[in-house]
Structure formats: C-alpha cells, structure tokens
Amino acid sequence: MIFPSVASLAGRGARFGSTQEVIKEESDRLSVLRRVLHDRLGAERYELWLGPQTQLELGPDELRVVCGSTTVAQWLRRNLHATLNQCAIEVLGRALTIVFAAIAPPAATGGSARRAPRTASTSAERQLCFAEVENLPLQHDSEAGESAAISAAVPAPAAPQPAPPTAGQLPRWSFSDFVVGDCNRLAVQAALQIAQQPGRFSPLLAYGPPGCGKTHLLHAIAHGARAGQNRPRVMALTAEQFTSQFLEALSQRTLPSFRQKIRGLDVLAIDDVQFLGGKRATLDELLYTIDALHARGAQIALASDRPAAELQSLSGELTSRISAGLAVALDPPDYPTRRGIVWGAARRMHIDLGDGVAELVAQQVVGSGRLLSGALNRLVAASMAAGMPITVELAEPALSDFCRQHAPQVRLSDIQRAVCEVFGVESATLKSPRKSRAVAEPRMLAMWLARRYTRAALSEIGDFFGRRSHSTVVSAQRKFDQLISRRGEIVVGNQACRVEEALRRIEAKLRTA
C-alpha cells in the first residue's frame, strides 16, 4: 500500500475540505507503519522498543523517533535504523530520513523558583534534544539507503564538561558503547527497558562469567536512568561497598540515616552479590532493602557470577525475591560480539588496526572483553618494539604468544572430572561403549573440550575416553560445533539444558581446577 506524501495532500487541501482530513490521513499512514513494524519485530520486541514510551512522528520527508532519553535514542539508532527504513519504504513507497530524538528535561529557572505545574503541550511547543551519536556505526547501513540525520530542532545549552575521574571511580559505561550480540541481547533489552522505565522488571538479576559485561550493564542502567526525564535518585555500588557502608552505619549508630538514603532511591544497582555469602547480617539488610524498594515500585538491579538457582546456598530468601523479578544470562561473547568489542576498544584506545587484524583477534582470543583488551595491548607493544604498524603478519605471532600465556592449564583428567560432576555420570560410564544420549552427549562434549583446551593429539584423546579412534574425536568435534551453532539443547541431570549453559557450568569448574 502506497500513500501520498503530506505535502501533496496539503496541496490538495480544497479537495479534502480542510486540514483536518490531511491530519487524519497522516495518522492513518502512521498506524499502518506501526502495524508493519509490529509484524516485522514481533509483539515482544515491538512493545519493548516502540511501545507507548516511544513516539513516532511522520513528516513529509522524515520519520522522527522520540524517546525518553538520549541513551535510548542512541541505542535505537544503532539497532533499529535499517528496520525502520525498510518498513517506511514498504508502506510509503520511498525512503525517509530517520531522525532519533530525546525529550529534553525542563530547564531550571533558579534556586528559589517554584516548579511550574505540568501542562499538556503540543508537539510544536515541545523542546527536543537530539541524540549525539557520531562515531557509532549503524547496523546494515548499506541496506538502510541513507544514514539518520542527527541535528537539533532547538539548540540545547552546552553541557558542562565532566570532571576527570578520580582514583577508584568507575568509568561512565553506557548503552552506546555496549556491544550487542546473541550472547547478551535479551539482557541488554531488559536493561534498556529498566533504564527507561525503572520498576518494570524488579528485581533484575544479570548473571554470567567474569568479563561478559555485567558491571558495564549495571552502570549503563544507572547512567541511563539518571538521564531520564524525571531525574530519579540512582545509586550503583558493589556488594563489598554496600557491606562497608552498612557496617559503618552500624558501628557509628547511624543506621536510620543509611536506611533512609538507600531505601529512598528510585534505582539501586548492586554488583557481585555472590560476595555476600556468609554475611548474614548484611544479607538480611539487603533483603529488607529489596522489600522496601519493591513496595515503592523502585528498581533493584543485581549482578552475579552465577544464576539464581546457584544463589540458593547463599540465601534462599534472596533467590525467592529474584524469582519474582527477571533473571537474564550474559554468555561469553561469541565471534561477532568479540569482533565488535575489538573494534570498539581499538577506537577508544586510538589504535589503527590493519585489514583483517580485528577478525584475527576475535578468532584467536576466545574469552572475556578484558582478555580482548589485553590482546590489543599486546599488539601495541609488539608494534612499538618492531617499529611497524599492526598488520596480520605482525599480529599472528604476537597473538599466538598471548594465547599461550593466558590459556588455562587444563588436563584431560580435569575435563573428565568437570564433565562428570556437571552431568552426574561416573568416569567409568563416560569411557564405556554405551551410546545412549545420557552418556554419548557428555562424552562428545568432553572430546570437544579436550580439543579446545589441551594440546593432546586426536589419538591421545580417543584413547583417554574409551580407546576410540581419532575419527571418532573428529566426528564428536564436528557434531558439537553444529550443536553450538544452532543453539541446541543437551540432557543434564535428566533435564534439557541449553548447550551454552552446560558449557558455562563446565568451564566454571575448569577455571577452579
């Protein structure tokens, strides 16, 4: 269905009788566009990204996406530009300029001035502060046809430059520099929704192994919420800092003041909650704090290196409260995500990578974002020592040495023990000729891990796991690669489990081997 432009409709105003019909036609076109976007994105993603909290305004030659904060506008531009453009072409028969904007908070009128009552304002009276997103690449720019226009409808006052971070201060992590991939997409979408609408999913638990972005995501929630229109009270701290402040208030008899400060927040983010194991008094204080914030409709966001089920030993009451909210996993970064992390880190570190170097780093260094940053530092050092730019020829030996230094020292017996503990099978059963799924899958996974974490030859791996041929090991590796690529499931303890979750549990045990 192709609709005429607003400009052409206005030119035929006499034919319609009044501008009211022009406005009605524009509203109809916007409704059709929303329906197409709903079908394209699916109900859940549409409500999360383009629901009532996001306004779409259709002009003669542009589509304006108005969000509650600059952070959300930046994130939507990076992830939704191509889809919006394609749907506009489908509905209107032509490409539009996609403009992403954020509603600016009301300007202060002086310390003694009273806050003016809110009144309904028209779109012409509303002041917009457009997202500044230069140097952030669009996804699928070549398909989008043209980049989004980033400009200001009304110039906003220049923001003061932030002071340099003091010692111990965490960096200003935000959604704009968080690399989104299949390994963390659900967690990022939930965090973005929370930053825009605190209290939507509370409490939130983000869990995953070290270096997968949990701390980054918590601080992105805090910074995104602070940029919101209502200026909520936000605090982000670690579990160790929460413990220290609580014990200090207890010793100095200022507990009421501490509780008033913490329980009066709109958003409370606490990192590394597993640190609270064995700290009964602090855990009780946290539980009462969660209850108080939840009763007020405030947002609690937690991060842990283990899922809620494994926090049961820490505190059954905490696990119970988390079950009433939302728990989302952040898996170790996959290849596309690692590549994005490498490019982002290189840009922040002002490193000029030659053709193919980022891809090589993402392929060779399988691990956390911190490990990828360390690999880039290794390349910079090698470049300075050799007096030559960073090329694939320079990177290959440097990365080989880096991976050898940081690879965990894992033996075949360590892999066997970890697999047996997670799957609940005996080592003799793992090496037996049995081919049932409950035995074959853990044996196949053990061979795959042996190929990844050890330098053992194929014949050595086959001999260790039941005197099997080297072709059996190759087949096991190929089958498990296919299982990972299609995000399949395997049986763990008589229950279906995502293959990524099974890998996470085994690798956690290998790190402590």
Task: Tell me about this structure.
With 513 residues, this protein is α/β, with parallel strands linked by helices. The protein has four domains: 6-106 and 124-144, 2-Layer Sandwich (GMP Synthetase, Chain A, domain 3), CATH 3.30.300.180; 178-329, 3-Layer(aba) Sandwich (Rossmann fold); 335-406, Helicase, Ruva Protein, domain 3 (Orthogonal Bundle), CATH 1.10.8.60; 412-511, Chromosomal Replication Initiator Protein Dnaa, Chain: A (Orthogonal Bundle), CATH 1.10.1750. The chain is built from 22 helices and eleven strands. The chain has a five-stranded parallel sheet with strand order 6-7-8-5-9, with helices on both faces. It has a four-stranded mixed sheet with strand order 1-2-3-4. Helix 13 crosses helix 14 (357-364) and helix 13 crosses helix 15. It is globular.
List keywords for this structure.
disordered N terminus; five-stranded parallel sheet; globular; Helicase, Ruva Protein, domain 3; 513 residues; Rossmann fold
